[in-house]
Amino acid sequence: MQRNIDTLTKTIREYLDRNSLTDPSAPWEIKKSNLGGFGIFASRPIEIGEVIFKDHPVILGPRAALTSPLLCVNCFDKDNLKPCERQCGLRLCSLECQNSSNHQKECKIIRQWQTRPIPEEVSEKLFKVLSPIRSLLLSDQDKAVVKCLKAHRSDQHGFEVNVMKNLLHFDLKENEEVFMRFVCSVLDSNAFEVIVGHEDHQSSIKGLYPLGSLANHSCTPNTIHVFDEFQHMIVRATVFIPKGAEIFHSYSRFIWATPTRRFHLYKTKHFLCKCRRCQDPTEFGSYVSAVLCKVCKVGRVIPIDPLVQNGKWQCEGCGEGVNRKDVASLSSLLGSALNSFSPEDIDFMLRFIDKKLKTLVSENNETVVEMKYKIIWMLGHQQGFTWTELSDNLLFVKEKFCKDLLALLETLRLGQCKMRGLLLYEFYRCCNEAKRRQVKSGNVSKIKSERKTNKLVKI
Q1: For 221, which of 55, 157, 250, 366 could close a Cys bridge (C-beta 3.0–4.6 Å)?
Q2: Rounded-to-integer distance, Cα 52 and Cα 136, Å
Q3: What pLDDT shows up at residue 124?
Q4: Using CA atoms, how far apart are residues 14 and 436, in angstroms rounded to an integer?
């Protein structure tokens, strides 16, 4: 085992060195994880906000998701896309991108495989299987990096290769097909979503980050990661991490309930999480999963054992047992309602929270939290609800919801996470706008009195 760890560490450090990301003082090391396989651990105490490591994508390319829009395959811009003049079937935004060395390599190998011209209506399929194709263009050293990463094997993996053979009619060599099928499994297990572009022109692609891929998941992670303009991954500590502690990412949304997170992780990453939060029926006292009891009307219904799929749920107050399917049906119904709301429905959404959800679920239930988060981003940013257009009541509602969610993140032990930073900024904007109005009107008492109340201002 130690020999494998030493070999893996050497491979990763040499990869970082080739990409000018070596940092001799970086506080990480690779060790055996109690979760199985390898993990990244703190080699010394790590302070909040400290950079733990930087990583470079060994593969960067389009996502295979059905909803992914077409992009320039070189710069990932959305606009002015035209078919490659060499007729490889890919689309690019400019002559500069067509003539880039990266595209010329993939263009050449695709044209070598072609047994017939690619119709325009299936060119989108080629775009979505480009990432495994790019793996064949890696150097032997970088291929060795990919080979050392974890791959989950199942029938669903490698469908991209099936598209190449059966729909695009590519003439693949056996060794090419075998390696790309392996890469598809590695990408499915380890790839990160990367947002490229600026503000209104952002696009979502995927990147395979070798060191980042070695960090295991926890629903209470101790890191955040961001990407710079070169698509480097930068990983920082969100809490103090003592020497020897394992370093964790999160592959799911913090504000999802345990059943939702575990289902998502099983479908996308092929494991059932058993972290501390998933083991706790109350999720550290947040009750994000809880619904209200139909019998006593006030007790919170939570799972007896959250790690048992389709296990029994029980009311904390009266002890009434509840079938997991009934909880799932309610959650599904509320989720559908959440997705149906548009920006014009803000007043109705507020009444829905105050009148309906209060009788069905706990105050921090995932549907309530998602709805509050949605309203926070509508108020102040949507047309008709810009900062200067918000009524004093809606401004107060936004401020209160920011406080609610910040308190929830604290309860969930999420430290200096990205969501906290975003909420703090929106809270600051609320306070700043309220102060501007007070100064402008000279009437300080009205807003101050509203802030002393502990309930929603009536709309």
Answers
A1: 250
A2: 30
A3: 87
A4: 54
Two tokens at 108? 């050449």
What is the token pair recorded at 98? 């067509």
Lookup result for tokens 């100064």: 439
Question: Average pLDDT of 313-340?
Answer: 92
Q: Which of 286, 367, 358, 294 is nearest to 331 (CA)?
A: 367
Average of pLDDT values for 305-318?
93
Number of residues written out for the chain: 459
List Cβ neighbours of 450 (8 Å cut-off, separation of 6 or more). Answer: 392, 393, 396, 457
Q: Name the β-bridge partners of 42.
A: 28
Measured distance CA(131)–CA(252) in Å, rounded:
23
Whose CA is closest to 55, among 27, 25, 13?
13
Which burial class, exposed, middle or buried, applies to 362 when counting CB atoms under 10 A from its CB (0-12, 13-18, 19+)? buried
Q: How far apart are CA 401 and CA 456, in angstroms?
A: 9
Instruction: Measure the CA–CA gap between 392 and 152, rounded to whole angstroms.
Output: 53
Identify which of 423, 363, 370, 435 has the alpha carbon closest to the alpha carbon of residue 399. Answer: 423
- pTM of the full predicted structure? 0.89
Q: Tally DSSP H helices, then E strands, for the chain.
A: 17, 16
CA dihedral (413, 414, 419, 424) in degrees, to 10, reads 60
Structure tokens at 110: 């695709």
Residue 445 has pLDDT above 60, yes or no: no
